[in-house]
Amino acid sequence: MRTVAYVINRLPQAKLGFISPHEKLRKIKPTVSHLKVFGCVCYVFVPDHLRSKFDKKAIRCIFVGYDDARKGWKCCDPTTGKCHTSRNVVFDEASSWWSPQKIKFSEPRDLEEVSEGNKECEAPAPDPSKERGGSTSKDKSPWKTGVHQFTSEELRPSQIEDDESVQEIRRSTRQRQHNPRYANTALVDESILIEPVNYEEAARSPRWKKAMEEEIEALNKNQTWDLVPKPKDVKSISCKWVYKVKTRPDNSIERYKAILVARGFSQQYGLDYEETFSPVAKIMTVRVLLALAANKSWKLWQMDVKNAFLHGELDKDIYMEQPRGFESKSHPEHVCKLKKALYGLKQAPRAWYGKIGEFLIQSGFTVAPSDSSLFVKENQGKLAIVLVYVDGLIITGDYYEEIERTRKNLSIRFHMKELGELKHFLGLEVEHMKEGIFFGQQKYAKDLLQGYGMLDCKPISTPMDPNIKLQIDEGKDLEDTTMYRQLVGSLIYLTLSRPDITYAVGVASRYMSNPKKPHLDAVRRILRYVKGTINFGILYKKVKEYQMIGYCNADYAGDHGTRRSTIGYIFSLGSRTISWCSKRQPTVSLSSTEAEYRSAASAAQDSTWLKQLMEDLHQPADYQIRLFCDNLSAIRLAENSVFYARTKHIEVHYHYIREKVLQGEIKLISTKTDEQVADIFTKSRRV
C-alpha cells in the first residue's frame, strides 16, 4: 500500500489540474525516473566488507517499493526473508521472481545503469515525516535498529571497461541551488558489474568464456589431473566455476578471473583426506620483522604465487567430475583423477604449504620453531628471511646474494608475481619513511567508516566512555544483530595495528551473541574515535637500545556482569610495540594481587615465545626481560616461592611467572600507576 501511495502522489490528477499531489504540496515537479515495475526481479549489490572473496557480488531479490527515510529501493530476498535498501540495484523489469528467464550477462555494457542522480540537477528529496505521517530517518537509523542498509558511499562497484574514452568533466566548486526544471533528467553516475552466479550466465559473455579457457589451459599445463574411467564403488566429487573481477587500487578492471573450485564439502574424512591444518604467519612475526628491518635498514620485498594451491600434491586418490563446459567429447563419462591440489579441497592449503616448505628447505632454509611460516637462512652473520602467508611472501634480510638467488629460483619453480617493495600485505599498509617504517591501516579504517556512514562523524578523544558500564541484558533488542557482529569483526581486524582500541573492541566483542542498543552505541563511539585518529599506526625507528621490555596490568573485577578481571600487557622492541593483549580472565580473581599476578603470568608466556622468535632470527636474546608491574604484592608473590593461605587456590599454570623470575629470565620491576603503559588494555584511557 505504501508503494501505491508513493506512486499515486507523483502522478498527475485531473482534480488538481493535471498536476501531482507532490507538486501541489511542495511546488516542485517530482522526479519519476527512479520508478520501477513493482514485483520485478532485481539484483542488489553487496559491498566488499559484507561478503567474502568468493561470495556473490549481488543478491537476487524482488522489488517491493521505495524507502520512506532515505533514497533507495526496497528489495526483498524471498529465500531468506530479509529486505535490503540500496541505491545500487540492477532491475530486470521484464521478469518476475517466478519467471524461468533471468537477466542476461552477455556483456557488462548490457547491464542497466543505475543513476544516483547528479548533485547539481537532483530534485529536493521529499520530507518523509510530512509525506508518510512521521516516520523520520532518525527512527530508521541503523544505529538504533541494528539493521545495516546499503548506502551509495559504501558501494564501490568495479568500473566497466569501454572502448571509448570518457572526457573528465571539470566542476565548479561554487555551491549551486537545485533547479526543478531538471528534476526528471536521468543521469548515469555509476555502472554495476555483476559477476555471473553460474556457468550458464558466464557462457554468454566472451570475456568470461575466455577467462574459463585460460583457467583450463593453466590446469592442463600444470598437469592437475588425468582423465580416467570412473572406478566402481567410488563417488566422485563435483566442481563449480567461481567468477571474480580483479580490480586495481583505483577500482578499474584488471582482468576477469574464472576459478575452478572443487566442492570440498562432499569429501569424506579418512577416505578423501585426513590432515587439513596449514600454518600461516603470525601477525606478531610480521611486526618483529618490520622492527628488525627498520633498525637494521633491511629492504623488504613482496611476492605472490599465482595459482598457489595447484602446486600442492595429493596423498589420496580423489576423483572429480569434468568441468562444466569443458567435458571431453570422446570420453564424456570419464572423471578427473586429481594429481595436484585444487581450490576447494580440504587438504589444498596443507598440500601447498608442504610444497613451498619443501622447496625452501632444499634451498638451505630452516623452519623457525616459533613460527612454522618463517624460514631463515644464515651465513657468516648474514640473514635471508622468507615469511609465508598462504600465497603471499615477505622476503627480507641482509644476505642479498641469497635473497636474489631465492627470488629467481622461486620464479623458476613456481609462477610468481613480483610486487616489488613491501607496501600492502593482507590489508595492512607499510610505508617506508626517512624516520623508519610506518605500519598502519588508514585505508581500511577509512573504508570501514565510509561503509557504515561514519566518515563525516564528529570525532571523540577516547574509544570508550569510562562512566558507562555495559551489561548483558540491559537495553533494547536490535532488529538485526548481523550488523553488530560484522562491525565488531571489522574492528578486531583494525586492532592489528591499533593497540589503542584493543580494550574497547574486546569489551564490545563480549556481547556478540545477543547485542543490545547500548552495545551498538559503544561500537559507534569506537568509530568516532577512529575517525579522529585515522592516521594512527606504529612507526618502527632505528634505535640504539634494542632490547625487549614489557608492561602488565589488570583491572580487578572490571566486568560488572561476571566480576572477572581484565588483563593487559604489551611488549616493545627498541621502544616500538610488537605484541599486546587485552583479555578477560577465565576465572574470578579474589583480590587485586591475584588479578595482577595472573596478568604477569600471561605476559611471561608471551615473552617466552617472543624470546624464542628472536633466537630463531639470530638476534641477541640472552638478556633478562624487564616486565613492569604496578602491584608490589604481585611482584613479591612472584619472587618468593613460599606458601600463602590466601593464594593457595591459584591454578598451577599461573605460577609460570614465578619460575621465570627465579630462573632469572624475567625481572619484575615496580612502576607508578600513572606510568603504566598497559593501563590502556584494562580500562578506558585517553592515549
Automatic annotation (TrEMBL):
UniProt-annotated stretches for the region Disordered: 108-182
Pfam families per UniProt: RVT_2, SH3_retrovirus
Protein name (database record): Reverse transcriptase Ty1/copia-type domain-containing protein
Biased composition range(s): Basic and acidic residues: 108-142
Domain Retroviral polymerase SH3-like: 40-97
Positions of the Reverse transcriptase Ty1/copia-type domain: 222-464
InterPro entries, sorted: DNA/RNA_pol_sf, RVT_2, SH3_retrovirus
PANTHER family per record: CYSTEINE-RICH RLK (RECEPTOR-LIKE PROTEIN KINASE) 8, GAG-POL-RELATED RETROTRANSPOSON
SUPFAM superfamilies the record matches: DNA/RNA polymerases
